[in-house]
Amino acid sequence: MYRTRMRAVIWFLFVFVFYLFYDSYFSLFLIVSSVAMLLFLAFSIRMYKNKVQISIVAPETINKREASECYIEAKNQSFLPIVKVKCNLKIINSLTNEISNQEIYFSLNGKSKERIYIDVKSLFCGNVKMSVETVNCFDLLGLFFTIDYPKVSEEMLVLPNIFDMDVDLFENKSKNNEAFAYSSELAGMNSSEIFGIKPYVPGDNIKNIHWKLSSKFDELIMKELSETADHSLLVLLDTSLSDGNQNHNPVVFDAMMEAFLSVSRALLEGGQSHSIGWLNGKGNELQIEKVFSQNHVLNLIKMIISIERVKQEESALDFYFEKNEHTRFSQIVYITSQQGDKEADMWGRGAQVITLRCVTLSGREESTVNEGGVVFTPESMKKDLRQLVI
């Protein structure tokens, strides 16, 4: 663009100097024709304004590292041909926070429609959003252009690669999958097991008054009821972004997502219904879904890999124990990339936590395996996780 305009300036300087030194009809013709051409180009640009309609067409799903059949459909509503059109395409993977930009050039005949195929390939799973930020239409010589903001976008799911693994439900073999136990650590609302007693305070449920003790001490004594602990499993994915968390690295979080879905599939193939959970950073909520079949997981997969992660110091496991008051599980398979022994401290809080921690190759050399935990890398996770004991 800059070079084209410099050439135009040089040309007009040449024509003007030529006219000054050679007073002839030919030099006058050069000046008049050059000015007329300039006016025509400026007028043609006005004719292009808002005359190009843009849309994006993409498949609903593709596999990782697979070229997609995406294309831009452009329609020229003007009768004038457009020699050069530039589309600025922005591509965002909401799961890995990757952002890339492409400049796409093409031409359009008058009153015509064209398909321009684009190369969109993702190395990582996630929800990929493609949007056309600006459309520039240039005149015949490239001196002038228009800018339009079409606000056109399309989304495409890049599916994770789920791998085979064997899960040995060691602790669950002697238990009914739907059985419940009473927690000795957590107060709840179950009337069949008393957690403790306490003095009455306004707002307490009068149905929980311990009448025998109240008559003995001559004051109202309340029963604290035990919360039930669900012996079915929770597979929990840590989606928080904190300073000590390696899942800022898209390679690491991509591997965590694949391990998360692979563990869930292995449990279902073994006849073990369970729940899956993740921290929805956008709503600051822990989302837990009970799954019974692979079809159920497939119905949830768009929501799972469309997670928008935000920076948050609180991990999914912290959030579960501190703010999740309604549903408790006796066993948690926790998939994270955080370094530390906080997970081991949770054993005394009514849950057995088995940590699957994803690290890079360099991080693996520095890491230590927590009790009941497994360390894996994106490169070796199929080997590291092929046999898992819960």
List keywords for this structure.
single chain, 390 residues, alpha/beta, 6-stranded mixed β-sheet, 8 helices, 20 strands, 36% strand, elongated
Written overview of the protein:
With 390 residues, this protein is of the alpha/beta class. The chain is built from 8 helices and 20 strands. A hairpin with a 4-residue loop joins strand 4 (82-93) and strand 5. The chain is elongated.
| Rg over alpha carbons | 32 Å
**Average pLDDT taken over every residue:** 78
Contiguous low-pLDDT stretches (5 residues minimum) are 171-193, 226-230, 343-348
Please count the helical segments: 8
Instruction: Report the portion of residues in β strands.
Output: 35-45%
**Count of DSSP strands:** 20
Largest sheet: 6 strands, mixed
Percentage of residues assigned to helices: 25-40%
Distance between the termini: 63 Å
Structural class based on helices, strands and sheet pairing: alpha/beta
Helix and strand sequence? HHEEEEEEEEEEEEHEEHEEHHEEHEHE
Shape: elongated
Would you spell out the secondary-structure blueprint of this structure?
Elements: H1 2-21, H2 25-48, E1 52-57, E2 61-63, E3 70-76, E4 82-93, E5 98-108, E6 112-118, E7 126-138, E8 145-148, E9 152-159, E10 166-168, E11 180-188, E12 190-199, H3 211-217, E13 221-230, E14 233-237, H4 250-269, E15 274-280, E16 285-291, H5 294-304, H6 316-323, E17 331-336, E18 352-358, H7 361-366, E19 374-376, H8 381-384, E20 387-389
Parallel strand pairs: 2-9, 10-20, 14-15, 14-17, 17-18, 18-19
Antiparallel strand pairs: 1-3, 3-6, 4-5, 4-7, 7-8, 7-9, 11-13, 12-13, 15-16
